[in-house]
Every structure is written in structure tokens, then in C-alpha cells.
Amino acid sequence: MQEIRLIVTNDAKNQYWQETVLTKEAIASEMGVVKVYAKEQEQTIDGFGGAFTEASAHTYQRLSKERQQDLIEEYYGESGLRYNMGRLHIHSCDFALGNYTYIEEGDETLSTFSIEHDFKEIIPMIQDALKKRGGEINFMAAPWSPPAFMKTNGEMNHGGKLKKDYYQTWADYFVAFIKAYKEAGIEVSYVTIQNEPAATQTWDSCIYTAEDERDFARDFLAPTLKKAGLGEIEIYIWDHNKEIVLERVEPVFTDKEARECVTGVAVHWYSGDHFEAIEALHKKYPEKKIFFTEGCVEYSRFADSGEVQKAEMYAHDMLGNLKAGINGFMDWNLLLDEKGGPNHVGNFCAAPMMLTVGENGEVDYEKRLSYYYIGHFSRYIQAGAVKVLTTRYTDKVETVAFLNPDNSRVVVLLNKTEEPVKVLLCEAGEGATITLDSHSIATVVY
Hints:
By secondary structure, the chain is α/β, with parallel strands linked by helices. The protein has helices spanning 54-60, 65-76, 116-120, 122-132, 167-183, 210-227, 245-253, 256-261, 275-284, 299-302, 307-324, 369-378; strands at 4-10, 15-22, 25-26, 33-44, 47-51, 85-90, 138-143, 188-192, 234-241, 264-268, 289-294, 328-333, 353-357, 363-367, 386-391, 398-403, 409-415, 421-427, 430-436, 440-445. The chain has two domains: 4-42 and 387-445, Golgi alpha-mannosidase II (Immunoglobulin-like); 47-380, Alpha-Beta Barrel (TIM Barrel), CATH 3.20.20. The protein is built from twelve helices and 20 strands. Strands 2-1-20-17-16-15-4-18-19-3 form a ten-stranded mixed β-sheet. Strand 7, helix 5 (167-183) and strand 8 (188-192) form a beta-alpha-beta unit.
């Protein structure tokens, strides 16, 4: 343990990623210790990212070219969050300007398939991020609903199910999307079968049972991807809340063929913590990856929450999920307008970056506190890092730690309480004394 870097964010003191160097000391005390065990290793981290929704891209186009590049640096650049992942929606979602698909309604042969719509705003934003990262972004694509004619309710919104007769056509649609995006220079690494398959929403939605997901993955999507030369693309199931994840995966992973073709599970946070479910999932199926693929602060539920509360929601969930076994984190919208949209059914929410409009109509963006809290993870936990064991003396501090590929350690410490908390951070008898201010977050790198 040589240099010990302490990075702190404390909104009350206007500290945002404020960095100092600590003096290494021998830690012999039995009291007040947070211990790191670098030899006790768990899951490997793929990375961090956010969603390139049409809402984000449309809002992005309202910025000047200079501020667009600044925003991309804030997310995908070395001075920003250092994201290396991104989520894509296969045609429209709720954070789009309206329902749309890539084919003419009723086109069963997909002869009219075109992603021309996405070239207007979505793809230019993605290409800016790829340029910033030198092309090194892993993308996950997910559908919110098949085209209306493929569904039992005859519309994209309000749930309904994919008709059995269209399982193959829908699998072919996935392939058409992946190939079209590849031609645009955007490589899809992962797909999920359906966003929130247990929710009937007023926006784009479609219901799948666990058995439906199993059958579609095993009998249609996996073989269709393989036949198209896309067999390396990872397939994920569920893509919904954590509280019933164990029940949802069982019919898939107890089927030998389905278990072999499904790489992992995607989860959201809207029903609460349920970190124990993630831990149980990780232990029961250790070969399967678990991605957090969506979370946001919904105005319909948390309209009166302050910026500290919003930021702590992010950090608490990221800490809990990472400790429990997730391999990657993808936030929801990268950027939203001043109303928390646009959203074609008024389902507004917050984002780490929000548009601002001045008295004279001048447009800019601002970083919210949640942006900085996310950065305490994404800036320092490298792709390929391994989660290691931490133990703590009190529940007043939440912790998680990682061993990076370059052998550096990263420890994240969160204090959501009203009082400062003193921590003796220790690995193998060495460490540093740290005082965590109330409602602050710290990252220690050594």
C-alpha cells in the first residue's frame, strides 16, 4: 500500500470529487475498522454506462455543438464518468417522441426495414460517444414492444403479448436491427428479450411469462443470431425489477438448452433494494452475469425529493447491487429536458444531466448531484475489476471494494446519516483514518 488517494463528494461543503492524499499508517485497533480482503474475490465488472434514448438524443440536439461535446466528455471522457457501456432501445420506448418501428405496419417479411428514423438524432449522439471512446463502448439493445400487428392487443402500448406466429419474425427483426446498427458503426454486444416483461404500461410494453422468454430465447432468438453469424452476442432475460428475479429465472435456467444460450439476467430498481435476491441469484447461478440496466428517480413518486436524496438513492443501490453480485451498471436517460422528458405519455423523471433554459431562452445543461455520486464508482472501478470482500464495524457506513486489473484497490464508502462517521480503513494491517461527513460519499484508491 503506497499512495492512498481519497476522493470526496459532499454537497453541503461544495466538494465534488475533491481529492487529497492520505498518510499510510499501521492499523491495529479492533474498533471502528472497515477491512478489505483482496484475496476474497467474487464477480468481474464489465463496466458502467447509460441509455441513449430518443429523449436524450432529442435534448442533446438542442445544445450548441460545443456543449454537445462537453456533455459527451462528461460521460464518456477521461475527465468525466469514463463510461464504457450504453443501452439502446429497439425502436420506440416511453422516452421517445412517440410510437414508431423500423417497418411499415403489417410488413411480415421485413422488406421495409430501415433505421432511418434513428439517424436523425439518436445515432449522431451515439457516434459522438464512440468517437470520444475510440470505438470502445459495449452496447445492450432492448425492445419495449414489437410492432402492433405482431401483438395480441393490436397496439404497441398497454401490454399485450407477442403472437406465437410471429416469434421467428421478431427474432429476424432483432438481427435486422443489429446488422443495421453495425453498418452505422455501432456494435451490439448484448440483447435482452423484453424490457419489463411483467408490466402492462400506458407506453410501449409487452408481456412475457418466464416460459415465453425461455422458448423465445432457446427456439428462436439464439439460433437466429447464430445463423446470422451473430452467435457471440449475449442474451439476457428479465430486464425488470429485483423482487421476483429468482422466480423468473428458474424456468429458463432449469432448462439445459435455454441455460446454455442465455448469458445472464438484467434487473431494475423500481421495487426497492432486494439485494438478497441478487446475492442468491449470483450464488445459485455463478456462471451467469447480472446487469443493472435501468434506474431513475421518477417524478411520479419522488417529485419532492432533494438532490442529496436522489444521489443517495443511486449510491445505495449501486453499492448494494455490486456487493450482491452484479457485473455492470447502466443508468437510464443520459440527458433530459427541463421537464424531465420528453416522454410521449408524460412519464417524466430526473437524470444525472438536465437541460436548463435561461430567461432569454438560452439552452445549456447542468450536472446534478447524482452525476458525481455515480462517478465515485464509474471513474475508478475499471472494466475487468474483481469485487473483493469488505467487512464493516457499523451499518452507518455502506461499503464495497474492488481489485482493478492494474492491481489498485478501489473502496467506496457512503454515509447517509446525519452525523459524521470515523473509519479506520485497513488491508493487511495498513491503511488510513477517514472521517466521512454526514450525507457524503468517498472513494479510496491505493
